[in-house]
Amino acid sequence: MTKSEASAAKPSATNHDITDRLVYPLLSKLVVLIPRSVHPNTLTLAAIGVGLVAAGTLALSTEPYSLLACAGLLVLWILLDSCDGIHARNTSQCSEFGGFLDHFGDALGFFVLQAAIVYRFDLHEPLVFGAMLLRQALACWTYIIRIYAGHLFITRLGWSFEIYAYAAVMVALFYFPDFRLQIGSLPSLDLLGTVLLAYYIAVPMTLLEIGLMVLASRKKSALATKLP
């Protein structure tokens, strides 16, 4: 097995994210071109910086083109966020601090992005804050499970999928600023409100999927210990 093939998987995690499964094989071939002298934490810090700039671009500009700029920066953020781990495994530079920095940067960047969305679009409805609290609860649950199981479980609608989805939403907001969703007699929702409403459906499903992944992993481990 070549280094690029080995890095396409995450040995410290079970990753079912549908976008990672599409992007990782290509990234693995590109990351091998990064010199060993470039430390993985440098890529992590670059990813954090790009994520913060994406949020700042959204919050500090009212120009429509800032939505497209934010979308491009979000894609760059998640690509860099994927590259650091692959590069660390390729060059045997994995570390506890690197893992902490990666996860801390993800949480920080996502929190700032959500704050930028609230600020840019002047959101103050309970639906919005409920969705965001639900999302943060999911993040906490994911890492509690990691501490409990000693393993990170990433679902099909994982972190990468979420950031790519936000990038797509920014593009959609640029091209369809007057979008409204009407379901029966319920209040109509704009595009961003529709996305936030989706959290109320996606988060419980994701919590359930994490639980099923943990149970499957424990069952597999139990069977392995019984084998001679």
From TrEMBL:
The chain crosses the membrane at residues 42-59, 65-83, 104-121, 127-145, 157-176, 196-216. The keyword Transmembrane helix applies. GO terms for molecular function: phosphotransferase activity, for other substituted phosphate groups. One of its GO terms (cellular component) is membrane. The keyword Protein biosynthesis does not apply. One of its GO terms (biological process) is phospholipid biosynthetic process. This is Cholinephosphotransferase. It comes from Rhizobium freirei PRF 81.
